[in-house]
């Protein structure tokens, strides 16, 4: 399929699910529930990573982006891969951004099930390396043996780097130890034998017995109350944090529900507008048919009138002829008589 046909197919699938009221657990988006990556293609070549993040961060926090560029020139190839912090943002992005136009070009947005990171050079930063190793979403099962081989090669390279770094660190330590040994005075040739060390036995303090007999020392009860108070405050603080988290989750859910209701309203409005347009077109067609029928009837009437007038003219001509014939006969008879 061409990119534009894929855009149309995705939009038709979303409209069909919205029309049928399909549940989220049965939707076609659940196939990609383990991947937070999406594919974006067909956008203008002059857009940068920042421009794309500004557009696609409307429906979630963008964690990573891979804008594919030409290795020789460094120019954009017009497609990229984006990773969201939350996988639900991918559904919103695919439903809302697929088929829109950016600077006159229709873009295609689709899910990515098994995203494979590109083979970068050794000068990548730690954050990107961490994202490439662990990912930013639930890890999907590997589909082929080629991905496992690539991971093994990457691990071998990492082990080689660690060994090189360890060797460098050991060499630096040896250099430092040599420099310190050269600066310190030489040790004596004959060392005396070490003297025997005597360990004194610690005497038992009678205050421990008093402590055991009397109980806690003065001020111990107050310290216990303070510890309990601190524990209570910590528990209250944890409860507040849990409450704030619960409220944030409720707000997110409420926002998702509002977005879904807005989508349903937009779809209903579009359907109503389509129905009104169809009704208007049907009415226009009926009006045109009526006007065409009226015109045909007028033409028929006009032709009938013309035919009637022609017939009347023919009749008049015949009557005039008959009159002329009669007059001639009368004239002849009169002439004969004379």
From TrEMBL:
Lineage: Eukaryota, Metazoa, Chordata, Craniata, Vertebrata
Residues annotated as domain RRM: 36-114
Protein's job: Involved in pre-mRNA splicing as component of the activated spliceosome. As a component of the minor spliceosome, involved in the splicing of U12-type introns in pre-mRNAs.
Transmembrane segment boundaries: none
Oligomer and partners: Part of the activated spliceosome B/catalytic step 1 spliceosome, one of the forms of the spliceosome which has a well-formed active site but still cannot catalyze the branching reaction and is composed of at least 52 proteins, the U2, U5 and U6 snRNAs and the pre-mRNA. Component of the minor spliceosome, which splices U12-type introns.
Low complexity: compositionally biased ranges: 136-147
GO BP: any one term: mRNA splicing, via spliceosome
The name this protein goes by in its record: RNA-binding motif protein, X-linked 2
PROSITE patterns membership: RRM
Species of provenance: Seriola lalandi dorsalis
Basic residues: bias regions: 155-166
């Amino acid at each position: 399929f061409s990119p534009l046909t894929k855009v149309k197919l995705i939009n038709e699938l979303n409209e069909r699910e919205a029309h049928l009221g399909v549940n989220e657990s049965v939707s076609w988006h659940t196939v990609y529930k383990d991947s937070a990556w999406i594919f974006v293609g067909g956008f203008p070549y002059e857009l940068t990573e920042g421009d794309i993040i500004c557009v696609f961060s409307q429906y979630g926090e963008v964690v990573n982006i891979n804008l594919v560029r030409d290795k020789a020139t460094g120019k954009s190839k017009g497609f990229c891969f984006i990773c969201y912090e939350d996988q639900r943002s991918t559904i919103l992005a695919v439903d809302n951004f697929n088929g829109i136009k950016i600077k006159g070009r229709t873009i295609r947005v689709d899910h990515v099930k098994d995203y494979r990171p590109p083979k970068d050079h050794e000068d990548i930063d730690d954050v990107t390396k961490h994202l490439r190793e662990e990912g930013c979403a639930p890890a999907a099962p590997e589909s082929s043996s080629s991905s496992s081989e690539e991971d093994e090669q990457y691990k071998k390279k990492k082990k080689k780097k660690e060994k090189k770094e360890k060797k460098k660190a050991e060499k630096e330590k040896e250099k430092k130890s040599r420099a310190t040994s050269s600066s310190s005075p030489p040790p004596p040739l004959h060392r005396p034998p070490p003297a025997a060390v005597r360990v004194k036995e610690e005497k038992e303090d009678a205050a421990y017995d008093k402590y055991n007999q009397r109980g806690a020392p003065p001020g111990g009860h107050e310290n216990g109350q303070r510890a309990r108070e601190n524990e209570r405050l910590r528990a209250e603080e944890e409860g507040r944090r849990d409450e704030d988290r619960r409220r944030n989750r409720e707000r997110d859910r409420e926002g998702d529900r509002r977005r879904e209701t807005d989508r349903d309203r937009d779809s209903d409005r579009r359907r109503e507008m389509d129905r009104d347009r169809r009704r208007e077109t049907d009415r226009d067609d009926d009006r045109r048919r009526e006007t065409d029928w009226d015109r045909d009837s007028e033409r028929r009437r006009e032709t009938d009138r013309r035919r009637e007038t022609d017939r009347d003219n023919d009749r008049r001509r015949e009557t005039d002829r008959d009159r002329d014939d009669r007059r001639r006969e009368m004239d002849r008879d009169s002439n004969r008589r004379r």
